[in-house]
Specification:
The complex is a heterodimer.
Chain A: E1 3-6, E2 11-14, E3 19-21, E4 23-26, E5 32-38, E6 44-50, E7 56-59, E8 62-65, E9 75-77, E10 86-96, E11 99-104, E12 108-113
Parallel strand pairs in A: 2-12
Antiparallel strand pairs in A: 1-4, 3-9, 5-6, 5-10, 7-8, 8-9, 10-11, 10-12
Chain B: E1 5-7, E2 10-13, E3 19-24, E4 31-38, E5 42-50, E6 53-57, E7 64-68, E8 74-78, E9 87-94, E10 104-105, E11 109-113
Parallel strand pairs in B: 2-11
Antiparallel strand pairs in B: 1-3, 3-8, 4-5, 4-9, 5-6, 7-8, 9-10, 9-11
Classes of the chains: A mainly beta, B mainly beta.
Chain lengths: 114, 114
């Protein structure tokens, strides 16, 4: 079945450092890919998405490019802030005769120090 | 528009009891999905409901069940609780009318089984 693998955390960075969180996927067909973020005590919220190969999703300074050849969707940000501290989930969606489902990676916790 | 509302926010139960969790989706959203979130397993898909029908189900035992009402509100039930059922249960709704894959999450119900 389809699956998502993302780098284990926690990741600890100083403010203004460069961020990369790796994500690879296994899927039949061409699923849409997502990054969701979870702040403490809250549910997940969509950060960005890409629906086809070579698409780049971007939001709040974060970006990720759908790479079909490497089955990857790595999250990057050029300069992190303390407020970016959260758990980040890579995900893919499948919607076929079996119904709709979003499959999530295990999540990567990011700590940003001032 | 009001967001996804989950009640109660916290629950403490003992082994063998049963529990019912509630989720009110965003107005107009007809799809509701449930996830179990634990530190070790990440987010695990439980099931998805659309127009009062379960369309997709994850790999959970039959003790986990759900239903959806005509107003799209959904409930999830866990019978004969086990210690391992302690988790954050997240509900997410989706606007299927636009073929949209974006999930809107509630803040979750934190279930502790003693």
């Amino acid at each position: 079945g389809n699956s998502v693998t993302q780098m284990e955390g926690p990741v600890t960075l100083s403010e203004e450092a460069f961020l990369t969180i790796n994500c690879t996927y296994t899927a039949t067909g061409y699923p849409s890919l997502f990054w969701y973020v979870q702040y403490p005590g809250e549910g997940l919220q969509l950060l960005l998405k890409a629906t086809k190969a070579d698409d780049k999703g971007s939001n709040k300074g974060f970006e990720a490019t759908y790479r079909k050849e490497t089955t990857s969707f790595h999250l990057e940000k050029g300069s992190v802030q303390v407020s970016d501290s959260a758990v980040y989930f890579c995900a893919l969606s499948e919607d076929g005769t079996g119904g709709f489902k979003t499959i999530f990676g295990a999540g990567t916790r990011l700590f940003v120090k001032a | 528009k009001a967001g996804v509302t989950q009640t109660p926010r916290y629950l403490i139960k003992t082994r063998g009891q049963q529990v019912t969790l509630s989720c009110s989706p965003i107005s107009g959203h007809r799809s509701v999905s449930w996830y179990q979130q634990t530190p070790g397993q990440g987010l695990q898909f439980l099931f998805e409901y659309f127009s009062e029908t379960q369309r997709n189900k994850g790999n959970f035992p039959g003790r986990f069940s759900g239903r959806q009402f005509s107003n799209s509100r959904s409930e999830m039930n866990v019978s004969t609780l086990e210690l391992g059922d302690s988790a954050l249960y997240l509900c997410a709704s989706r606007d299927t009318g636009k073929g949209n894959e974006k999930l809107f999450f509630g803040s979750g119900t934190q279930l502790s089984v003693l």
